[in-house]
């Protein structure tokens, strides 16, 4: 046989050796020797990917001392011909082989690469991966790799090292799980989770332990297995805990319904406390010997359990509070926000380990507790970073764990087989799991609002997967103390493989066959958000009335506490005022925006596929410079647990190009793409779509004739504007012909007032976002500004003009095409409105950036704020119903605005001013209507309805525009459609 | 059991109530105790004031509306039977109880939704108007949001749910907008035994 020696991954040698006493494999190697036919060599040479005998080489001085010391047996690497360098000769070597210098990070990197490549390989075949869970494939790969190494090297070099596992791999997975744990769901089912985790795990542990002991007494288990009751109880403790890694890996692919998932997964996380305590208690019992255990020790065990679990939870919560407080003050250092999240969550884990509390509990609760506050505090980009980094790390850690499980299994020197033990264990864990689940569910169902039915119980029993935690624990056993360690290792490997591979493989068909309700990745609609909140209030009230101190009662109490104290402590002031419902609303809007834009992406050429989504993310967040609200929105997109879509970096050039692309591509009706995103669209009948298409074509041709005959003036105006850039005063002087004349008298009012208003109104939020813009700062570059500012300013103003002006003159502008071509004015088709939206977001960003640098900001960008303020003061007719439901919100807000504007002369002026520009910039659907009304000469005070929508439109443009996008009405019902043609 | 049966005798029409609402005797007893506790002047009827005496209810943003729901139009008081009937809306739907009368039971999905719907629909015209929705939103959101934010939320909600484009949400539309929600989960309270 092979010389034993627990060959650890070099990674461990580097990292774990000094971090954990248990991690020093060479010391433990000899301990295992009794099972190994060949005396174990005490040396555990660092392991390389494909080790082959190599002659020793002198380590350069720079080499790490440890690796140099360990290098004695000098395994080299494949392609190691360069290793023949010897430094003894003196003189200057042109090329030096510095393996020992880079060895540790090199091997880590190679392993990570290997694991990632493995993932790619598995996902080559779509059909294959839907049947075979990834974890199975990874274990198989590990087996193959282990076999290769074994054959090549005659000894196994790698093993899943407990210290590596517990200190690095497990925390990444648990941290991810805890941080993104759906808190409401978790606490809704907390009772069940705790029951299964504590009672269930204890039940499993004791029953398995005792029954194995009974089997041993009965002779089913071979004599060679030298184990007494304590050993079996210890083994039962470590084998009985459901494993979070395995559960996550398998259940994520199965997509059972949320309740089922959270119960099994929550159990796997929370049972850590039980496992840790049982394991430690039994280890100490085994050490002192069963006969020396006193009664007091059992009580100590119980006390220990309470301390470990509650202490772990408290440590986690303390770190959650620290994290929340820290992220309150990261406004100026957005870039390191994610780091704080990682560090503190990890520190929660390590601190719990430090005090030998339940680290998993600590980390989980740190994540759950901090998530809400951190997510609200940190910037959108930080949130995305946190999410992606966590998911990446967790994914890689999981991959490595499973590969190493496979590799570890190959090494026969470390385990000893006993069929009786293996089969008994398998039977017992399955049996007791099922019994435990059924028994506990029976009790729980008496208290649960939604009882767990039989199917749920089957899935829960079957989903009790064991995994790497059990393996790491069994490897950690001291072979001197636990004589049967090798048998236990073998059994654990078999159990883990059986549960992960066999059960993991079959659970999907089982779930399908049992028709277990699946989870839907559907996002709640705004109605659901509203009504569910109302339901919560109703239920709380009913509990209060009926005198029940039920779940809702306490949750309400908690929310009061959270609102009154915690949020004040942990949330930024700017965030604190926000309402969850409002955030939900914005999330939904942004989600729609992105789906709409992505939908545009579908029609682009493959080379540009990524552009639309980039544009959407690059430009929308800019709006937050003023209102700060998109920080939440993005999370609606990015914090989706199931979907990770990539967020490409935003580059200004690409952005410009995007505008081109959008402008060029979005104007043709593309129904079939729309249907892809039907989730957020009001269902449109086929016939209606047809109608709309036909209608648009007709409109287009009409427009052509229309604009050639009229609107010459607008064209002129427009070119004027373009030349002058963004000066509203000039705009004003251009326009009096068709507007009220007082407008000219004090044009200065606008910039001045807006300036100060901007100062107090939007400053905090603007600051808030400064840090976010590490990508988005680009628009500031002088090179871009001349191009983008006029264009951006131009476009919102121009729609009226655009009806008249042939696009020819403006075609050099990036988004000219969109504004210039008539059909979008008429159409409510989703895709067509986007360009305007983008421009406005763009415009917004530039304006805010400019307003920082240059005090007398161009009036145009200021308007949103001005109008927002004005609107705040104005009366709001809540009952106002828009004339056309198609333009619903836009026009209703407009109406409020106009009403507000009649209050104070100054405000009125300002608004009028806006109005006139807004006429242009307001929702594109209205343009035909407006323009058709206007041209016949100077109008009396501009018609209130569609006017100042811009203020709102711009400030909340995603909302307004998207609403109109998303709920694009059939042509018959929308005002522009029904009226447009007749007027033209 | 002796004391409870004697208590049961105090409850008027206990058997019919149990039959009608599906509450068990223990539930009913417990609710009756609560009823008597709320009924401070011992008239056997509750007035809105009695409800408002519940301190937590005063903190509930839509507590007033829920109290109103206990009082059918025009009535000043509610007796125990009506009290229990209203609460019966929130009894979890018992899947084992297949007695065919599932439809008109108070805890059916439709009835639960109807109850919620009527909290919104203050003028009882069978539609949640924009205004009515706004009122509820304003109550639930408080000062956290500006009026215009409320407006846009309401606007959006109505647009989303309003299938026939009359600018208001009818009960059918309301039901439709919540068809993916597990109402049994979200609108049920576990009544203690």
TrEMBL record, chain A:
Its main location: membrane. It is a multi-pass membrane protein. Residues 795-805, 887-901 have a biased composition (Polar residues). Residues 725-746 have a biased composition (Basic and acidic residues). Keywords: Antiport, Cell membrane, Endosome, Ion transport, Membrane, Signal, Sodium, Sodium transport, Transmembrane, Transmembrane helix, Transport. Residues 935-948 have a biased composition (Pro residues). Residues 708-724 have a biased composition (Basic residues). Residues 1-16 form the signal peptide. GO terms for biological process: regulation of intracellular pH; sodium ion import across plasma membrane. Residues 113-513 form the Cation/H+ exchanger transmembrane domain. It comes from the Eukaryota. The chain crosses the membrane at residues 131-151, 163-181, 193-220, 232-251, 302-327, 339-370, 390-409, 421-439, 459-477, 489-511. GO terms for cellular component: plasma membrane; recycling endosome membrane. The keyword Iron does not apply. GO terms for molecular function: potassium:proton antiporter activity; sodium:proton antiporter activity. Residues 912-922 have a biased composition (Acidic residues). InterPro entries: Cation/H_exchanger_CPA1, Cation/H_exchanger_TM, Na/H_exchanger_3/5, NaH_exchanger. Residues 68-87, 701-826, 847-984 are annotated as: Disordered. It is found in: Cell membrane; Recycling endosome membrane. NCBIfam families: b_cpa1. PANTHER family: SODIUM/HYDROGEN EXCHANGER, SODIUM_HYDROGEN EXCHANGER 5. Belongs to the monovalent cation:proton antiporter 1 (CPA1) transporter (TC 2.A.36) family. This is Sodium/hydrogen exchanger. It comes from Xyrichtys novacula. The lineage of its organism: Eukaryota, Metazoa, Chordata, Craniata, Vertebrata.
From TrEMBL, chain B:
GO terms for cellular component: cytoplasm; nucleus; plasma membrane. The keyword Nucleus applies. GO terms for biological process: protein transport. PROSITE patterns: EF_HAND_1, EF_HAND_2. It holds the Pfam family EF-hand_7. InterPro entries: Calcineurin_B_homologous, EF-hand-dom_pair, EF_Hand_1_Ca_BS, EF_hand_dom. Keywords: Calcium, Cell membrane, Cytoplasm, Lipoprotein, Membrane, Metal-binding, Myristate, Nucleus, Phosphoprotein, Protein transport, Repeat, Transport. Its main location: membrane. Residues 26-61, 108-143, 149-184 form the EF-hand domain. Belongs to the calcineurin regulatory subunit family. CHP subfamily. This is Calcineurin B homologous protein 2-like. It comes from Xyrichtys novacula (Pearly razorfish).
